[in-house]
């Protein structure tokens, strides 16, 4: 057992390491040591030392212009996050089937604290791929059907924090004010799905439904989204709910079972 | 600037943190503190302290049975890894198109040191989704068309290491021995694609081609794989090479450009 001053130092180095990871986001995917130092508030020498260590393990990689970016080795470890990998494994075949059946776009998301995160996205013909809803990106919990489903099944503390913080208008249809949002969230929970009609974006409408894990709690959300010119989003409810049920059943099976066993050798089924 | 003993301690804490990440793999997605301690070789008290810190940041999450798993917050940061996110963004629409056109399975992979890693996979009707080629999993660089393409464009040091280490038979068709593998790799590089006919698996055959980044170097590999009953894998070469060219062009554009700009608010185009 180490003494408490070493404990403290350990914690602070872990903190610094995580601070370095936290400097990277979708707008800053490659940074110099000086930029990391400025963004993290760590001294340049400390930053340089930590960056070198993270580089040699593969948590960071060299990028053009003396910059560093997140390394594939870190992605490899992080892709084991069960909330990502299990939801994705359970959802993937059903999402692709729904996309094929409806020709609309299908999205998978989960909540992380007070935001949603896109876990997976497949674009249908009706919704051209435009680089939005980037996998790994965050989105607000109130301005889309996906967000509203995740919010409806969030802890009361997360809901309360959002109600007191208030919403920021995304379009003219964004639900504003604590009381209307509370009502909306209760409706979504009671009904079992959310509908947005041109709410997050003028020309798109969609529906979203919760995915239940093995223990019954909501762990993710699946959404079906298309051009608002293709009719009412309510027409999408039935196939979406059937898909959400299939994914929930698959997930319960996965969570009850051991992770997929390795094939002989490694994974060499593909080409 | 800190003194060298503190430098040394800093580095060792970063090492310990990364050691904890390294305990998780596809067979061990949820671990107790004792299991992490055993697997990392760190004392239980140190492990407990570091795990608590990683938990509070979201790099780890609680799982059932007093276990811990990789957290969604770490996945969020790691999904920024350009070798994953850029390749995927450039490849996704073209992979889906190829899958639709051929009804076969399409895979995206990259090399990490001496192994391949599956970055993305879409199953066609001819190849039922069976949980293999799990995104994030490693595979050997010699026993499949994807591996052979990645090996053909690897640094000579990586190739040399593999030639001297030797291959392990995956099926009766695995290329064995340094000399035949060298010849194969040279052929793949010269020809611009690799073919495997029931090599990684009895009932599947496929083709793989390199994806070039903006600077011309090979950064990833795309493969098209289907049932060997559906004819010779050579029939798949033409559509695959066209797709690889489209993805390479897209990637060069992305690497020359800034990352996709954020929409107003966050990403709220989806539902």
TrEMBL record, chains A, B:
Residues 73-257 form the IclR-ED domain. GO terms for molecular function: DNA binding; DNA-binding transcription factor activity. It comes from the Bacteria. Keywords: DNA-binding, Transcription, Transcription regulation. Pfam families: HTH_IclR, IclR_C. Coiled coil: none annotated. Transmembrane segments: none annotated. SMART domains: HTH_ICLR. GO terms for biological process: negative regulation of DNA-templated transcription. Residues 11-72 form the HTH iclR-type domain. This is IclR family transcriptional regulator.
């Amino acid at each position: 057992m180490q003494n408490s001053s070493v404990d403290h130092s350990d914690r602070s180095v872990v903190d610094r390491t995580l601070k370095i990871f936290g400097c990277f986001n979708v707008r800053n995917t490659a940074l110099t040591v000086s930029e990391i130092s400025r963004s993290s508030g760590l001294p340049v020498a400390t930053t340089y030392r930590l960056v070198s260590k993270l580089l040699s393990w593969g948590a960071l990689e060299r990028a053009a212009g003396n910059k560093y970016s997140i390394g594939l080795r870190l992605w490899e470890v992080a892709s084991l996050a069960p909330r990502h990998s299990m939801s994705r494994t359970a959802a993937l075949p059903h999402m692709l089937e729904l996309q094929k059946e409806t020709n609309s776009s299908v999205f998978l998301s989960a909540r992380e604290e007070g935001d949603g995160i896109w876990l997976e996205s497949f674009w249908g013909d009706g919704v051209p791929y435009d680089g939005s809803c980037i996998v790994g990106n965050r989105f607000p919990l109130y301005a889309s059907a996906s967000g509203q489903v995740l919010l409806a099944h969030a802890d009361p503390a997360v809901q309360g924090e959002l109600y007191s913080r208030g919403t920021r208008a995304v379009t003219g249809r964004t639900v504003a004010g604590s009381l209307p949002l509370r009502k909306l969230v209760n409706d979504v929970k009671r009904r079992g799905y959310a509908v947005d009609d041109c709410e997050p974006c003028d020309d798109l409408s969609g529906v979203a439904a919760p995915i239940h894990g093995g223990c019954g709690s909501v762990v993710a959300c699946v959404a079906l989204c298309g051009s608002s010119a293709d009719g009412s989003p309510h027409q999408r409810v039935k196939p979406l709910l059937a898909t959400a049920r299939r994914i929930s059943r698959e997930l319960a099976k996965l969570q009850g079972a051991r992770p997929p066993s390795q094939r002989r050798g490694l994974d060499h089924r593909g080409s």
